[in-house]
Amino acid sequence: MLEPILLAGAVFAVLVWAALTAYVLRIDGLRTAARELVTEALATLRDQDVPWAPMPERIARVTPILARMSRDMILHTAADGGTPRASAEVLAAYMVEKWGTHILLREAASHRVPREIWRRTASLNVVYNLNLPPTFDLLGRAVQDPATGVASVGLTLLGTSSDPRATALLIDALIRQRHPASRVAVHLEHSPLRPVAAYRELLTNADPVVRFWAATLLAGCPEADGIEHDLAELSDDKDPRVRKAAVQSLSRLGGDVAREVALRLLRDAAPFVRAHAARALGELDSIEAAAPISELLGDSDWWVRNAAKGSLEALGAEVWPVLVRCLEHPDKFVRNGAAEVFQNLGILDSLIVMEAASDDPSGSKIDLLRRIAAAGGARMTDSLVERAGSAAPRVRQLLATMGFEHAGAA
Amino acid sequence: MFGVLSSFAAFTVTAALIYLVVVAAASLAGALTRGGRRERAVDAYEALAISRFTIPVSIIVPVETAGSVDSKRVSLAGTIQALLDLNYPELEVIVVADRVADASVEELKREWALEPKELFYRRTLPTAPVHRIYGSDREPRLIIVEKAAGGRADALNFGASLARYRYVVSVTPDVVFDRNALLRLMAPALRDPGTVLAVTSYVERRHTSALPATETADDWTAAGEDFQRLRSIRSWMASRLAWHQLSCGVPPRDGVSAFRRDVVLTFGGFSLDAADPEFDLLIRLQTQPDGSTGRVVRTSEVFGHAGALPDSEVAAAAALRRRALHEAFRALSEKDDNGNGRLRVLMKSVLAVELITPVAQVFVLVAMLVGTLFGALDWNAPFLALLFLTFGYGLVSASGLLLRGGTPGAPVGKDLKRLLLRAPLEFLVYRPALLWARRAASR
What we know:
The complex is a heterodimer of chains A (about 400) and B (about 450).
Chain A: H1 2-46, H2 55-66, H3 71-79, H4 85-99, H5 101-109, H6 117-130, H7 135-143, H8 148-160, H9 164-176, H10 181-190, H11 196-202, H12 208-218, H13 227-234, H14 240-253, H15 256-265, H16 271-283, H17 290-295, H18 302-315, H19 320-326, H20 332-344, H21 347-357, H22 363-376, H23 378-387, H24 392-401
Chain B: H1 2-34, H2 46-50, E1 57-63, H3 76-84, E2 91-97, H4 103-111, E3 115-117, E4 130-135, E5 142-147, H5 151-162, E6 167-170, E7 175-177, H6 181-191, E8 196-205, H7 221-246, E9 257-260, H8 261-266, H9 277-286, E10 295-306, H10 311-334, H11 341-373, H12 381-404, H13 413-422, H14 425-442
Helix pairs in contact in B: 1-11, 1-12, 7-12, 10-11, 10-14, 11-12, 12-13, 12-14
């Protein structure tokens, strides 16, 4: 009974394999031919005199090649980011000349099934480059479309436009949040326009996510008058994300208001706000804030401790008097953190190498070294010896005299 | 009695054959309906690549044991340089090396002027003891950690503990990729950072043109490389079709995944007992209890490619994959009902298909041989079964090539022709060769 089934199955498998193999090779052949045509068309458009010729002439030069290509292929090439802008314009103009704008506009307006998304986004690109009258209506629909791919292309195109309608649509998308606000903000950030008034208006929006992004985006508008005061007001917002955005943007703008806000937010209830306040003070080069920042070395939250370390490092070697006080702190985290900052600033290495080279090491410096080494622990002294390179024996000897006999022994 | 046994055997063999036909038909139908489609929207990465709002990523490079970085095949220094050159606004690279004296790690330290530094970090996940952490003033984005051997999961857990950024990505040193690879991988997470827990992408095994041809001719010449590429493409197809139909699935054999760091920590990190810790976590994330927010996304994008492996390593990797599938299936079967019921059933089905298919193939062949030996079947039955399986295998591989066609890096021209013609030989020649290699390695 099995033999007939096997025979039929085997013959069927061989035939279907052969047919599929032939089909795949045929598809590959068609693709190769299409690619060659695209290459030929683009090469023709790059020919010496063609780029400077009037549009009708450019179209005429490339028409014999384009006539052998499918509309989909021309559309895809015209919308491809790798196609030079001048060549894409010719391809788009050819499409309009041959098929009119109505097909392009229809395809850019909607898609029925996911497999048509590429055609819609490609058409949107072409319509945008041709600057046809319904462009912004179509882009407005695209950014509100549930399909992520469509919205993404809509946002990208709006983000490159210097037309005020584009930023209005982007801000509308930010408010509606049909797609993540962060995605919209990326394109607002790179827009050639800076809609400061619109951002300011958003600072009072009921939605904290919108206030957050408005505060964040205002950092890119340093030329606008008085925005630091608007942002300072937001530092009292009830939503911690907004307070974080306010202090982050203020740190980019700089100034006394930024310093005051950041210092105040070092005691914020939300850990990530404290962390960003600490980082902001580092970026603002606020040396006088080193002491309050150092208090965060013992914060209950690890991210805050890390931010405090990073901020102290950013402030540079001038923070050492504050760090010395931390070495005696009852909290081990504070001592560890201070020792790590000493190490990362290079103070520890300079001190130990100098004292190890000296025949008469200074008592106060030896004492400081002892305190840093004790706060950093055995692994820190081991690393120190390894970093010392050729000076390692003397450094090890010095550490031994300070009571760290096993330093670098590993 | 013999008659009953014979009928039962005939029934099971027929059932196995029908099952294999259904699997092949599903692959063919999936490839025909989705193959050659232009799925990628014409979307630009330029804005994301330079935006300060693009979520930063910590890349973990585990270097497990001495010799795991085969300098003939890959250059660890080259991989690190390529990672640091990625077109991505903010990232850090954490190399977690299990062995202190690995030459490639030493070379890396010299090249980047790395110095030992003591860092106080939160030991969120328990790991093997750390020997030393190295940092560089020249490249502050690079950290090398030397720790006691603890396996890949341990290295990933340490990397996740040390990572500063919201997403962690693990990249093995043998993967070759272009500058936009990370942007492609992270695109779904950047589009929807609130709900995307993990993203998985695909790495294709194939001949790397960077190597001289003679280097790849060790044990199976170019045919072995072609067969590995076909396996790789089939695995990608299975993953892609399953994910498309069921919105869940298993990652392809080789891939690069990005995980949200907080989720890794919440799930207790990468499992030290799992055969493939990333595979295990991806399955756990997809079958979390009802009401959990978040999803795992499988991108259609190719992250990069990796060179072909010697047969013994291919066989070992296949065994590891089987173990990972078994573990996942067992874990899902044992799990109590607080998991997501529908997803659990779907995931078990996907795992079952991957596990059952090779067993069904071998069963049909062995049953035919036994039936012939006992005189229950004609002598030509095993040959017909072999012919059926050989071309059935070739058919599934051809479906994979159809689906792969039109996507970047797909085989074309002579490459494609060779792969298509060699596809049926995989079952007949390469699988026995792998079995042989595995036996030789275990002796």
